Amino acid sequence: MKKNELKKMTKEQALKNVDKLKKDLFNFRFQKINGQIKSPSKISETKKNIARLKTLIARKHA
């Protein structure tokens, strides 16, 4: 996710994205266990995107 994409998001959109990314992360973990994941870097990238969105939500809340 790029900075300009994040700045354009509303708080509600960010919350929806966090939920979606958490579901994706859950699925990536199962794929990793089963040896089906093609790109393990997606796990850390997803975690970082969740953190970015949570930071954005906290800033918009304040």
Topology:
Layout: H1 3-8, H2 11-34, H3 41-61
Helix pairs in contact: 2-3
Descriptive notes:
With 62 residues, this protein is mostly helical. It has a single domain, classed as Helix Hairpins. The chain is 82% helix and 0% strand. It contains 3 helices and no strands. The mean pLDDT is 92.
Brief overview:
By secondary structure, this protein is mostly helical. It contains three helices and no strands.
Quaternary structure: single chain
Count helical runs: 3
Rg result: 13 Å
The count of β-strands is 0
Proportion of helical residues: over 70%
SSE string, helix = H, strand = E? HHH
Known CATH architecture: Orthogonal Bundle
Uncertain stretches = none
Query: What is the CA–CA distance across the termini?
Result: 22 Å
CATH class: Mainly Alpha
Strand content: under 5%
- Mean pLDDT over the full residue set: 92
Domains (count): 1
User: Overall 3D geometry?
Assistant: elongated
- Structural classification: mainly alpha
Q: What is CATH's topology name?
A: Helix Hairpins
Largest sheet: none
